[in-house]
Design the sequence.
């Protein structure tokens, strides 16, 4: 049978009938149907199709060990947040995007340690508890934290300026499910705009900024892992995050304090900033065979 | 408003409202809606999303000056043929895929020249006319031709073995709209399988073969350019082209001949093969303001 605009989609979907992995087959058939619908709806010219191929190629060529332009593309199209939202667990802290900067392992650190290795910024203490959905503290939960500095840069963006692991830490909660680390208040920042995704934002009149936030991945045995952010309340761009990641429940007060005794207790000097960010982990879903 | 599975698509589509180029805005809004529908339907896990990002990145990294893996991906998903079919003109020779090997300029050649620079194969003469939709010959039409050799390889795949420009030529039709060149009969061949698209085909139990064909782009002033193939009748894989490019009207007889006088007239020696492939160009569409 001839390949026509009408028969094309079934012909391609049918070509996947020999796929052993049933999940892969279902995903590819769905991809084919939605991708063909998009093409039939927009009717791209050959030149537009070539431009799209060129764009995707440029996105791929921009990816290296410290830059993930396809994650950025997924982010600015809202796909990353959509995937995380779909995978969010009822009753737990809300998921949001992983982002492109979780590319190096966070160094293991002790509770109370500083992740601000340069120690040139105004001190900030972030603490909280990891809890289950009933409010029971979860000891020995793992918390992976990463953030940019006060200028809006991650360590991997400034090799030679920031030491590797700056702004990153892997912590384990104490017997009360508590965690605490010292840092600086992160800045809002633009996502990298020197690549094809930056050109896309420019062509569409969109700004590249993200509101200030600290990334968290929290996990504990028997519970669903959550990938989320603590957003800094009052930060610019909370209403127009370039990657659509803000959820109201994740906006966190970062409170300034002059209390010297409290500062001493937390291992910093006044004035300092303090944020409390508790994380609730939903139970692992029942496995249905 | 919070970003939810329900509000996500409108939020992202709305973010393109400032796009000056109306066509770009429409394409991005449509892309957003279809891409989000695909994600909502398949509900990928975070690990699956990461695998998809990894796949696209590998496709990008495989692209270089002589390899276009995103074109291959578009081809095996039937998107390339779909785009060409949508852009095909009623009444003209049918369009089909450009393919990934139209990456170097074809050398200008005189009618009757050979594009088989190695001259080691069995000679084949391809000739035909370029006509308008009424059957009137089109003199001075441009014909860009490229093909693989008898082993199934294009020049760019075998640097050092095939000279650049082997199997390629740019011809201009004579006063009767005629063209003629010497070559070898191309072989069926597998699309390149040493990259991520090859792994996709393997995982889905699909073979990578294309039936034997010669690529043509034909253009003439006042007419729509056609990107097409002459498929070799009787070639394996005409029923299961890996890139879904076969259309019955493009299947062409390549006839063997022992006629020594005819051979001499065509500038080859008997036995030889002859194919006649006429190309009809539809008129340029009226420009609607």
Sequence:
């Amino acid at each position: 049978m001839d390949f026509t605009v009408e028969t094309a989609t079934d012909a391609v979907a049918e070509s996947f009938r020999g796929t052993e992995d049933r999940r892969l087959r279902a995903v590819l058939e769905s991809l084919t149907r939605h991708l063909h619908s998009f093409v039939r709806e927009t009717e791209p010219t050959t030149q537009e199709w070539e431009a799209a191929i060129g764009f995707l190629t440029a996105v791929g060529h921009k990816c290296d060990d410290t830059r993930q332009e396809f994650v950025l593309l997924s982010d600015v199209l809202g796909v990353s947040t959509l995937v995380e939202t779909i995978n969010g667990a009822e009753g737990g802290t809300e998921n949001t995007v992983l982002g492109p900067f979780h590319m190096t392992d966070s160094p293991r650190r002790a509770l109370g340690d500083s992740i601000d290795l340069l120690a040139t910024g105004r001190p900030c203490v972030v603490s909280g508890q990891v809890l289950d959905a009933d409010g029971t503290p979860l000891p020995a939960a793992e918390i992976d934290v990463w953030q940019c500095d006060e200028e809006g840069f991650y360590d991997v963006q400034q090799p030679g300026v920031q030491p590797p692991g700056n702004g990153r830490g892997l912590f384990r909660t104490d017997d009360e499910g508590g965690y605490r680390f010292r840092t600086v208040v992160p800045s809002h920042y633009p996502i990298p705009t020197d690549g094809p995704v930056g050109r896309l934002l420019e062509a569409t009149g969109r700004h590249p900024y993200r509101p200030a936030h600290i990334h968290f991945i929290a996990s504990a045995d028997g519970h669903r892992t959550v990938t989320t952010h603590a957003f800094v309340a009052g930060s610019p761009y909370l209403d127009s995050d370039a990657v659509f990641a803000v959820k109201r429940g994740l906006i966190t007060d970062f409170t300034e304090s002059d209390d010297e005794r409290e500062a001493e207790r937390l291992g910093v000097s006044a004035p300092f900033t303090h944020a409390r960010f508790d994380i609730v982990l939903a139970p692992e879903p029942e496995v249905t065979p």
